[in-house]
Amino acid sequence: MIRLLLLFRVADAVRNATVRWPLSAHTGTHHIQLWVGQPPVLQTLILDTGSRLSAWVCEPCPHCGQHQSARYYDPLQSSTSSVTLKVHGFSDNNTTTCQFPVSVREQSQCLLQQHYTEGSRWSAYEVTDLVTLSVGHDEDDYEASLPYSTVAFTFGCQTKLTGLFTKQLADGILGLEYSEFSFLSTLRDHGILSLNEAETSPDAFSLCLTPTGGWMALSGALLEKHQTPMLHATLNRQTTKGMYSVIVQAIWVGTLCLTCDETTDEFIQAFATGRGTILDSGTTDTFLPQALADAFQEAWEEQTGRQFTERTGSYTEREWKRLPVLTLVFEPGHVNITIPPEHYMERKAGGTNIWSNRIYVDEPEGAVLGINAMMGHDILFDWKRGTIGIAPAQC
């Protein structure tokens, strides 16, 4: 009875989100669409809880590849745009200070760059314009979107891309790490996300992801999709600047716990090194600490009768059914994420029995829980309150 009462109170403490947007997915990456400028241009952006800057391709960008949008945003063609510093073709009344702490003031522009772990990077200059999150997926949704989230927002106007950014479907990226210059902070500052902070912080948001899309919701969770009440893990805000780092207390491979005796303290410490263990919606796969590799291999073989491999392999129906569920337990100890094989294994196209394992046990510091770890849960990111809400959900 005490346990049931605790869960009831936890569920009561979570506000149901009243504003939500549909997401789409392509090759393992989840996207949201927004309108930029006047006349409005529809842009498709990666949702990335693992980075803080927002930027998308702008005209002209001759070496930026082909992306989702029929046309790129052009600040010179928008009647509501302003560049942070004076650029040829803009009026003299533009602002004169850089908005982003990471920007470099160089002659007539505030320039910024972003590098990512897998090697991609982009260069951009700061622009401010009207931005509206789209409630749908096509050109007819602009008027319906206007009442919810139209704000003047400062972002990066990309002029150069390298690596995966030149090949991806998305036009750019929406950084969802906590920072005072994020899109969610801008919505909060304009009063769009104001509510009683005793329930949920104004700039909290939840992601409920599926292989084909899902939902993003603001200032609350998607309670109607929850299969059990939402529980709250503690964020480690000491080692990260805005990143959503959880504190791992245990990891299970099927029915075997890798961290449940005194000799495995080093494994728990491995989850906490570097940035710690971050929830990163901009990463498709999951990367566990390299320090666990031998123990993970041994547990995998005991559970499946097969050697663990990160390469493509063939599995019979019987072998598939024996693949373990991975479970990570977070502080304060009763909160967990479960990763079933249908999320961490990817079937080769054509309906064959050939699968690719998308769990890697090779991260040199900490761990990265990507989209395949987050799927099947509604996850509430609340930096101000220092918690990550997790509930199994039908997204």
Strand sequence of the main sheet, in spatial order?
Answer: 2-3-10-4-9-8
> Regarding CATH, which class of the largest domain?
Mainly Beta
Identify the CATH homologous superfamily of the largest domain.
Answer: Acid Proteases
Q: Give the tally of β-strands.
A: 27
Rough outline: globular
Largest sheet: 6 strands, mixed, barrel
Using the 3D structure, state the CATH architecture of the largest domain: Beta Barrel
Number of continuous helical runs: 8
How helical, in percent, are the residues? Answer: 10-25%
Mean pLDDT: 83
Termini Cα gap: 29 Å
- SS-based structural class? alpha+beta
> How many structurally independent domains?
2
Q: Show unreliable segments.
A: 1-12, 86-93
Radius of gyration: 22 Å
Question: DSSP strand (E) fraction?
Answer: 35-45%
Q: CATH topology of the largest domain, anyone? A: Cathepsin D, subunit A, domain 1
Family: Belongs to the peptidase A1 family.
Domain Peptidase A1: 30-391
Subcellular location: Membrane
Protein name: Peptidase A1 domain-containing protein
